[in-house]
Design goal:
mainly alpha
Length: 269
Amino acid sequence: MSTLLAELTRRPDCADVMRALILLADHLDQHGSPIDYTRRRALFTTRACFVAPKDWQHLQRRLRSTRTPDIAHAQRWIFHTLTGSPPHLAHPDIAPATPAQRQQYKRFRWRILPAEAELLAHTARTILDEHGIDEPVQWTPTLSSADMRRLQLPGPDPGSITAAQLHRTVSADDFSIAHVAQALSTTTAHAIYLLSQHPVDWSPPRFRHTQQTATRVGQWRIWYEQDHLSLQDIADHEGTSLATVRLALLKNDVPLRPAGSYPDRPRRR
């Protein structure tokens, strides 16, 4: 951080960057943060496993037909998210040790599929709950828009492109960061940031339905086990087939009831 600040001080074109950092520091001094990162780093820096390998492998079997991402990237993602520290400060078992591993992790972050991001975010939330930590998983301070408008900052505004615009741009047939940046008339760095913040489904069409099922099966289980909806009710509600719902619940070890177990229950609207 000292090296960065020294570089910003030397460069005349970065005066407003320095001003933005001062505004951020003042905001944190005045309002604080809802996250105690010191506590998190003390708890999790020596931890080598955050997500169970069987959970990650089970998800990967449903999402991908080709080589699956290294589970070490998933462990790094959770460590990075919980502590705010760069992954090379994690436990040696998961810390990227070479430049190639660091680049692979960066690529993992912007190529992550929505179902993968959902599993990792849910796991991070569960870990905090297990330690009795009532904090958001992540948090971003909001600075005064009037103050920010007066600054001339390099590069595009990170929020100038919405998640919906990004999702419409990504094509599974030609998914490259250069293509996404060109289609959005922005830089590759901006496109990488957007993809990291708003994961998109870039998988081939035949796997998109599988991924949608993976993200919805948790809700289907609640409807089936707690609300006692039938398989057909769930299929109708989700606009999918009865076979899809049945197979998804069976794959997730949900015991199926005999047909007609709740004959007097009204159908869900």
